[in-house]
Design goal:
3 domains; about 270 residues; Alpha-Beta Plaits; single chain; four-stranded antiparallel beta sheet; Multidrug efflux transporter AcrB TolC docking domain, DN and DC subdomains
Length: about 270
Amino acid sequence: MTMVVFGIVVLGYVSLLRIPLEFLPSFSSNSMWVSAPYDSSSPEEIERLIVRPLEDILGTINGVDTLNSTASAREGSVSITFKDNVDMDLAIVEVRDRIDRVRHLLPDDLRQVRIRRFQSTDIPIYRFHLSADSNRDRLFDFTEQVVQRRLERLQGVASVEVNGVRQRELQVQLIASRMQAAGIDSRDVVSTLRTSHVNMSGGYIKEGSRKLIVRSVGELHTVEEIEKLPIGSDGVRMKDIANVSYTYPRQNSFNFLNRSNIKIIYPTFYDCF
């Protein structure tokens, strides 16, 4: 009986010093989500161009239990559930490798393919709202340049996510009647914008002992430059068939605090305290 009591005391002392105490223990799921945002499309087109290539390549990964996919007018996504004995750290590396293999089969204007895996460390531990009696530009700059950066510098902070902030974007609104009168198709506009906004390497030139790097710099920076772009060979310019503006996109969701539009900030820490 003395040895049993002594053993319990020793094990309790060791557990007290070595076993960490956490309010929310770290855990993760055996599921993974692959999403590819692709606006201004149809579900049928996203299924054919994005979802099917991803399904075919992701289905070849060892340890996959179930594979589900969805296609909407804005994005295509694939949900992967692995078996319980699969190392998820190696699985996410393999998923990235498979996506890189079919990246050339996806649309050229697809911006990014996101891979998400749920972990308890991704849950925000603190959320607060920010509002100010000023215009949207000043509030956006203050949130991005001051608040977000200072929070990211704190020790233990993994990421800081800001919602409710809209960034300006370049909008080209085509006028159908003018395009029809000029005999211009929307594909001509897309091709012109894509070929005129480039910044790529052109190789290098050797001159004696010197090696000169050549770059083709043709990026568009202002609205006026886009309006002056020629469309076709008949002298038609972008401003003749479209309205070009640098403005805020349409807002579909709103957050208010005391009748003022607010910005929601989610800091996430590496460890739960």
